[in-house]
User: Which sequence fits this backbone?
């Protein structure tokens, strides 16, 4: 929905003014649109593009070095007039003639053609390439009648690059024609769009439905379905475009620029999720992806929709696509040439890197994994109770957060165990998974605690009682670094007594199992005693006055876990 | 509304995968987020940014030369874990230490701080600058508690540029701190956003209302009003930010980077309309605008909203802001240094350039202007009738289109007359205005006809009868160039008989007035006779079968206009 405008009748003009004000480095305002603000060598071809407004960055956003020399900017979704087109062409032209390129729509054809006649009568040679990439808009045997959508960018880009090379008007025209012949797009829409001040949307798509093949001005598509998954949409788009590979091209081994274009309200993150599948499907078809684009390149105001373009390269088109460009909305080739890292460093590392442990430490790792499994079970059993406790003074998500964290840690630990990690590595992996999936403060704290524990335990030996006590103390310190102190009514109220009891028992000569049992009892007693504490100011989000009398869920979940781990340790000791 | 996803639980991860696949030139996947795919000199500082996902291009889109070395990417609107942050920092770090910079949110502070402790324990020095630009989120005397929004970009950019210069960790930190001190943002929202798979929006703003100061995760603002005009919104944003100029800075004469940031569903054209007013208001306040940014820089998924950031420069910050950067979503400094056109050529030329006419031609111009005024009146009188005729075989907009065109031509002609133009210039101006405002086919045709007429008449002399006949014939040829032929049931059916009758009468020695009267009669008879014609196939859009028996609106409006112009010519002749 369009919300920001002054007089709707002035919208397109004011948008053009603002666009130029924001992009003076590249463009200047001329009659009918914009032209470059920079010099071009005499005798080079001027690629002049254009069409209705509402498709930013098409068309003004694509004016600059290596791309268009000027853009005629019509009213919203309406062709510029012949006079506007001619005005832009006169300003943009610098002695090498003019190539008009634009999407194939009746109004644009009418006005650009009229402008071409005027310019020719003034002695300026003009050629025209209409972009016809939208495969839905006419059958393949009537390809010249197809509309132009995001494939505009491919044709404009290579034409602009060829012009920059100083090629003749006929050469630039031939390159643009070949690019158009080798560009195919297919789009879908999920919503219409509304123009400034309009009482009704210009067109509509029913909620949760998808119009297949709808054009960028709401032109009727070929079908309507429920919105598929991102993967399903990618399959639909790729399959349709692989169905119509240009003559003489073999998809397997072909080099292709994919452009996944958002029409306005489909956001980048969604586009990336779809692109992930597009890239995989193209790879499966043997297509080699070259410098893809994912983003908003030819929009339809705030319409929700997506189109996929495949631009089937040849050597010359690839060179021209990769050539530098510097415009308000499309830039290629950085000011600084950065060297690429060696391939070995570029490989995705999606997990943390943990080596194998000594045989001794692998045995300890198995016990730690069993402890994490027990933790997961006890949290599962008490998830509702922990949530209810948290709802009194917090936002009620402690149970769910602990459940997500313990589940993820358990799964990650089991997976790591299969890879032969030591106890330290296993705890590092579990820490990572817990904090990542649990989120929130409890996730951060449990992640830090497990990480510190793992760091202290290491991957080489079976730790002595004293070393376990040191590890527990390191974990406690890591938690205390988050800032809570005993008495704040947090997990720390149970953790600190646990740490003290464990250390004290070990110093008195207790075994790990005995020390742990004693410490777990201390944690339980302290957790129950949190019922008498007042939450620290600022911690309780709601109903703070009711919080006295309720135990702290962080302290209670800690006590539950250390209690259940006692059993695991005793089992281990009994073996 | 988010529509494209697979399993919602995997959304952020899959988006990160797709993002990396689409941007392999710049970034590689590392544990917890992304790092540069390019080399950096040993010993340089790594600026590591991050935060929740859903804010693209923040944060992964800002990784690359001249900006961040890595970005930790959490789940949707959720902080990355300490382990993820540390993972990214380890991968991004190259011997000069790490500067963490991120928006000031509790979860991010918790996890980045925990990661900093881990990294420091590993011997990697870490500094932190939290961005606090959102003026609404806390009062000026508690500025350190403010949230970070689009001002993130200013801080990250200058820190990245300083790191690229090889400055020390303390230097880079000091620069980032100063940038943060001199950056202020203020935002509004018009709608909430919905995360993948969520049944309900995460937060909402009532339809046609504006939440003033709402944060990028829907944090409560300070007020709610009706959505103002674009100008009204610009005033609100600029006024609030000029109210809080950094200490020691005088707004008048200050150099400032304005960033007008769209949060997701407010589109570029709307942003440009608002920016037009922002630029003017800043200029009125004496502020000098430096390299502004208008677009989507820190988003909030598909939330509709806008924020304005003012970044108050000093010499060093300006140099660092202007330094090259090359990242997936933010690039500065083209690969090619283009020379700027001389100032005289950069001035906006919003109208067509028409000189003054000879005194004789100025007299003719006055009669032409009177004819255009008469045309406007007669079209006004018959607008409904023309629309009804068009509705039978077309889309019913012929009357309105002719009305808009004639009105614009009349206004432009009167304005041009005051500037002393000749008849040719006046017709050129009128042609331009008509086609621009009328739009559609009739606008294009009338524009071309008036332009050809003006070109033939010129600006120097009073045309003879023969010259007027030539001009009429030139205008007719310009119309025929659009492709219609007599018998197609178009304006041409009246125009061609008019041209023939006029030429014939002049050749027989008739005065302009007499020839025009005869030609207008011929046009009227021919227009009435279009009732008997069948529209050319493809022309009639609806109810084509009913079109026989209805006159063609284009032919009728032409006849009406030339009839009424007869009176103007006779008046002129009678003087």
Assistant:
């Amino acid at each position: 929905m369009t919300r920001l405008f002054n007089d709707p009748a002035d919208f397109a003009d004011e948008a053009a003014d603002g666009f130029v004000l924001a992009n003076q480095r590249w463009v200047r305002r001329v009659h009918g649109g914009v032209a470059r603000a920079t010099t071009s060598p005499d005798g080079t071809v001027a690629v002049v593009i254009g069409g209705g407004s509402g498709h930013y960055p098409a068309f003004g956003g694509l004016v600059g070095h290596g791309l268009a020399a000027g853009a005629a900017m019509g009213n919203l979704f309406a062709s510029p007039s012949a006079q506007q087109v001619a005005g832009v062409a006169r300003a943009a032209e610098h002695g090498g003639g003019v190539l008009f390129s634009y999407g194939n729509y009746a109004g644009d054809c009418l006005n650009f053609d009229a402008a071409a006649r005027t310019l020719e009568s003034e002695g300026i040679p003009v050629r025209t390439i209409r972009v016809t990439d939208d495969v839905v808009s006419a059958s393949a045997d009537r390809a010249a009648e197809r509309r132009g959508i995001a494939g505009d960018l491919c044709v404009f880009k290579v034409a602009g690059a060829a012009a920059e090379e100083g090629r003749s008007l006929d050469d630039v025209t031939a390159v643009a024609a070949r690019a158009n012949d080798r560009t195919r797009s297919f789009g879908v829409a999920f919503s219409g769009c509304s123009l400034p001040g309009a009482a009704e949307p210009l067109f509509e798509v029913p909620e949760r439905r998808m119009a297949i093949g709808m054009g960028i001005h709401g032109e009727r598509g070929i079908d309507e379905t429920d919105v598929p998954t991102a993967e399903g949409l990618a399959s639909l788009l790729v399959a349709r475009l692989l169905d119509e590979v240009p003559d003489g091209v073999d998809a397997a081994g072909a080099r292709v620029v994919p452009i996944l274009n958002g029409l306005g309200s489909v956001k980048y993150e969604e586009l990336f999720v779809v692109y992930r599948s597009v890239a995989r499907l193209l790879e499966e078809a043997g297509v080699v992806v070259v410098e893809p684009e994912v983003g908003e390149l030819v929009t339809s105001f705030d319409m929700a929709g997506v189109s996929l373009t495949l631009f089937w390269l040849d050597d010359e088109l690839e060179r021209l696509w990769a050539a530098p460009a510097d415009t308000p909305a499309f830039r290629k080739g950085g000011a600084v040439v950065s060297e690429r890292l060696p391939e070995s460093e570029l490989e995705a590392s999606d997990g943390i890197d943990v080596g194998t442990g000594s045989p001794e430490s692998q045995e300890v790792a198995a016990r730690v994994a069993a402890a994490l499994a027990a933790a997961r079970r006890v949290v599962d059993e008490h998830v509702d109770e922990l949530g209810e406790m948290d709802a009194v003074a917090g936002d009620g998500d402690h149970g769910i957060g602990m459940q997500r964290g313990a589940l993820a840690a358990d799964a990650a630990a089991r997976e790591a165990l299969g890879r032969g990690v030591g106890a330290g590595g296993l705890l590092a992996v579990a820490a990572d998974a817990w904090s990542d999936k649990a989120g929130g403060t409890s996730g951060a704290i449990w992640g830090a605690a497990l990480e510190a524990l793992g760091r202290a335990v290491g991957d080489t030996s079976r730790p002595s009682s004293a070393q376990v006590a040191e590890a527990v103390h390191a974990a406690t310190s890591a938690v205390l670094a988050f800032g809570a102190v005993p008495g704040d009514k947090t997990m720390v109220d149970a953790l600190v007594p646990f740490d003290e009891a464990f250390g004290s028992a070990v110093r008195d000569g207790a075994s790990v199992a005995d020390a742990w049992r004693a410490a777990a009892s201390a944690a339980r007693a302290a957790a129950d005693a949190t019922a008498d504490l007042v939450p620290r100011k600022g911690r309780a989000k709601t109903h703070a006055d009711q919080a006295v009398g309720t135990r702290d869920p962080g302290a209670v979940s800690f006590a539950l876990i250390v209690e259940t781990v006692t059993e695991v340790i005793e089992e281990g000791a009994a073996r």
In short: DSSP finds 18 helices and 15 strands in chain B.
